[in-house]
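If you are new to this repository, start here. Below is one unmodified record pulled from the training split, so you can see the exact layout before writing a loader.
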Amino acid sequence: MRFLKNKVRLVPNIKEDPVKEEPRSAPINHSAIKQESNENDFSLNTKKESFLDSSAFYVKRESSGDSFQTYEEVPLLERNKKKKAPNPDGNSKNLVKNYGKALCMFASSTMAIPYLEKIIAAKRLKDVKIFAFMNFYKKKKGGITNIESLRTLLVAERDDTPEIKIFKQLFKEVSIIFLKYFCVNWIFNGKLLHKNEHLKFRLRMLRRVQNAEYFTYLRS
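And here is the target side for that same chain:
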């Protein structure tokens, strides 16, 4: 007994905390889960539409099983925006082209007839057919592409017939009238995009037409 008594160690009496039982989970309500999933479907569908409208995101649907579906927002790849072709109205070549077409359109319109009659009477020009003049410049409208092509319609050349020389003289006078009194209305009521640029060069174009023999450039 002494032997056993010496060998046995006394263990202190430690009170252990009682184990707390975890609350039991409530039974799964499958109808509520189905209703919640339907609401999520609706909210994600509306989100998908908004993302598609903004072209920033789209919603990708991934099915994982027969009863559950997950959604993931995936950023769209940035598309290369279509670069608009630089509008050529701003450079000098197309300024001349646009002005030249406008001059021909005015010269071949009925608005120019009263001015043509006054010019013919003032300069005492004989045997001038106004409608032949109008048809001539109506056909030339599409051929104006640069300063040289416009200058040939203003300056008489050696090979020109007497009638063409008179036509060019009349065209110069009518063009001056257009640039003075009708040009601003054409710029702001037309389809030109660079309106300020055309307005800026109006007086310069007027001086070039008045001295068409020296019309070799527009920008200084």
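Two things worth knowing about this chain: Residues 30-75 form one domain. The chain has a mean pLDDT of 76.
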